[in-house]
Amino acid sequence: MIVPGRYNKLRFWRDTAVSKLAIDDQYIVQKPGILGHELDEDFDNGFRPPGLFRMSRTKVQNVMII
Length: 66
Hints:
The chain has strands at 2-4, 27-29, 58-60, 63-65. By secondary structure, the protein is mainly β.
């Protein structure tokens, strides 16, 4: 999982290495395999609950997972 610096202000990343990243020019690569065997793509189909937001962005085998 790759976490770009643009996510550094989210409470979820508080007191982690992500919170210390510069906004756009740095990123953290989390431990390989952290996503496990199953992950989902985040498509906006017009039925998103209010308050939903992204916490990371990762490219897996040329497919962007955001």
